[in-house]
Amino acid sequence: MAPLATSATAAATRVERPSISTTPLALPNLLLMSPGPSSPHPRVLAAAGSPLVGHMHPALLSAMDDVREWLKYVFQTRNRFTLGVSGSGHAAMEAAVNAVVAPGDVALVAINGMWGERMALLARRHGGDVRTIQAPLGEVFSLDDFARALEANPGVASVFVVHGESSTGTLQPLEGLGDLCHKHGALLVVDAICTAGGVPVLMDEWDIDVCYSGSQKCLSSLVSPSPFTMNERAREKLKSKAHQIQTYYFDMNVAGAFWAVDGKPNVYHHTSIGSNIMALREALALVVDEGLESVWHRHRSLADKLHAGIEELGLELFVKDPSLRLPTVTTIKVPEGVHWAQVTSYLMEKYNLEIAGGLGPTVGMVWRIGIMGNNARDANIALVLRALKDALHHVGFLPPPAHAAAPPPAHLVTVAPTEANYPCSAAPYPGVAASQTSGDGAAAAESVRPSKPIAASATADPGASAP
Asked: Does the structural domain 291-443 have CATH classification 3.90.1150.10?
């Protein structure tokens, strides 16, 4: 047998030193008006730069407690099982499917865009017997659609629905669906990635069993951890399939113990991303300070303003029914003779402004503009409309202007927000009174608005045993 290599030989490199420059890399400073991520508030970025501590340090565990309580407010729920899943919204979707779909379970998935398709894919990969209902792109499902599907597919164990389908820009009505699912013995799982923190998500009132969202969308935080909540009905399903759970990382039984959802000491599950938890805590604090009613109204009113401006430019909105348009993601039909990328590239190069093209089934068909969280403000809507008009002149959709447009103000071209021009601490956003509401279930928000912090006994599930 050959002798082991000497330490000197073992220390020699086998791969040459990379030639890539090690100069610090600066990313462009963009205004992110796409369907996500959205531009964080300066306070969120500052919180992300907090000193690092261990993942079981009391200070970080205390921040996790705040995140849990404030997420209950955003979801309008008293569910004890409320936490952040380490990962993007896709990780939260995976965790939701993993929690409620056992091999052989019949899962009914509503598909009217890319994210319904993704739900169906994950349910199949977890061994589910997936049945689907389909709606044309830009349309939603009626309660009768779900009733017929449940009657035609006896034994459905779970129903999966996307609340805000960002690939098409639709907002799916959910009132009455939870009750219908439960009458058929099924759990209701809702994807609120593009809605929670931007439009009403009334988990308890709508009788939703599992709901998840994305931290980088309407909350304008960093990517991860992703908001996640489930009620006691769903937890019973999770506990009953514990022996079947294939993945440890997405096992919500142990993730819940890590987040101390039952009031017991935190139990190690994985090494969490402390800086991102601090960022999410700050993003949620901004929502709590402003109040959900004001947040909802701000997103809806600015979406209406954007929609009106888009139509004034001669463009057509993809979703025909105004009541079914997703306030946080606006979809616009790409006109005949215009390539979508010509416009998005022009906006990026001239204005440092990011909007998106279509996604999945809408690729090449639409542009998508996000109005989310910290970006949902008048100045940004004005900039988007002015820049879009300029781009449409540039690509020949609109005739050349009589006079060349003046360059946009520098403070609108690049994003260098300060506390002064992005006020978010104690007062509502400019132009939105705290008493104003959206009219879409807004009055329900104060019923579970937290007083920082909420006592644990005040947030337990109704009828659930004390931890």
From this structure: yes
